[in-house]
User: Fold this.
Amino acid sequence: MLSHSNEPLLKADVLISDYSGIALSYAFGTERPVLFLDVPKKIKNPGYTDLDIQPIELSIRSKIGVVLSPDRLEKIPAAIASLIKDALKYKKCIAHLRNEYVYEFGRSSKIGARHIMDIYQGKDGKNYP
Assistant:
């Protein structure tokens, strides 16, 4: 039977990922590093390059973990060992990046509920039908 629990993620010392958003959720939620396999990107919006900015999923990979080419898979055990050995360094860096990129981490549900109540009570200054 499949479990839909987050327990395996919460227990893992390192996550192995590609470009998936779970890597950011894992790193920011657990303050643990990620081993990224540098496989070809699955680009759903080729127009993203028109913005001339690098997506966060690409820009912080080497800051929250290690990027490894698929033709160097024999290096995975050593890379994982290094990430675990340097876990405290990554923890500090990930916490810093989370504070920089995530709005009100740990408080968003409370703040979101307050905004919803403000809208409901008409305190947001907008008139709704």
Remarks:
- The first strand starts at residue 15 and ends at 17.
- The mean pLDDT is 88.
- The chain has one domain: 7-120.
